[in-house]
Amino acid sequence: MHHTFETEFVDYQITRRAHWDAVARKKPRSWGGYYRDRLKAIFGLLIPQGASVLEIGCARGDLLASLNPGLGVGVDLSPEMVQIARATHPGLQFVVGDAHELNLGNQQFDFIVMSDVINDVWDLQKVLHQLDPYCTPATRVVFNFYSHLWQTPLAIAQFMGLATSNLPQNWFTRHDLKNLLELSGFDVIRKWEDVIAPLPFPALSKIANRYLSKVAPFRWFAMTNLLVARPAATVAVSLPTVSVVVAARNEEGHIVELMARIPEMGGGTEIVFVEGNSTDDTWGAIERAILANPHRSCKLIKQPGKGKGDAVRTGFDAATGDILMILDADITVPPEDLHRFYDVLASGKGEFANGVRLVYPMQEEAMRFANLLGNKFFSAAFSWLLGQPIRDTLCGTKVIWAKDYKRLAANRVYFGDFDPFGDFDLLFGAAKMNLKIMEVPIRYRARRYGETNIQRWSHGWILLRMVVFAARRIKFV
User: Fold this and answer.
1) Which residue in 135, 141, 176, 323 has its CB near the most CB atoms, within 10 A?
2) pTM of the model
């Protein structure tokens, strides 16, 4: 029985190698050029230039080359495909190899790409296990694969000579792939559909693929499924240090309590106060609290600009911890809950922790009814935009690894700099980098000193503008 199974596998690979060698000797189908260009645009949005990228099933290497990787390695079963790839893209590395038995030395990659290849492998679970040595905890594995709905149209196109011929294939669903990834030690971060119109009909194809493929019922008819995964949670080897950034404007009455209630976490906790040019004595209160608590590691910075977003960025730039946290100075989020956010990152369960105020009952007057409605609207909008559940977008407590924040800040120009809060700058950036976002329920309290710094209606208008802007930069691309 074992011998028969092995023989079947060998025959399968020989047949496929011969098939793709034959395809390599033919001129690429021009009809497929528009579809391939669409995939290049999608992967280009997911993968920043200069990253290290491994592509399994790279064919002629055109997709890999389009990503402009700092290190690009392509693996393909077909020697003739690899020969063409080497001649066409001499700046990249191409290897003849079997995805079931990878042997690439000690290299690890920021991204691993499997584009239109999983339906052609013998044992996908074995292939997924082969990826483990080439992953770091930050690696992202990106898949696209044909929808089963397109099996008959593709067969007709191949019969008519309009599409590249294929041997009998697997037809995985997104659920099938998600299940196999979890069995193989990966977490799925997001999944979606794309390409309704695989051929270049003037104007129509662009509208269909950029907009209609993202909304029901049109997305149900998309040609390709996409999915992003990461290696499953790994616990930090040593206890990471923490920086808690407190943006404080007109919060004199909360400073002593903040100092007393912010917990010590991990390998050490630093408190970074960013004072926002208050009209009360917030600056003096912070100075006195620092002097009264010499055992605490603290910094005090005068905010150079305006708005909470500017204060958070100033604090993050000055912070030295491995994990960066935001804590609102109004103590509406209990400081004692910060350890819950720390545990999400230190345990590896998530890479970005977002507070949720809408689970537990709130204190009376903690959130006005109009604010609650606004939160629910924007939560639904951003969950759809970002591809991960975001139940509470406006909770001020957000936590991210410092190394990820540095990458986020370096690529901030993609979205622009018009977020007065800082919340959405972080959420958009985390989603763009495909970080695993986890939500942490907290008990939201009413403010006990001073007045809120939020200008509800004008800031609500800004948020609405940001929804439209983010839709163009994240969803409709």
Assistant:
1) 323
2) 0.88
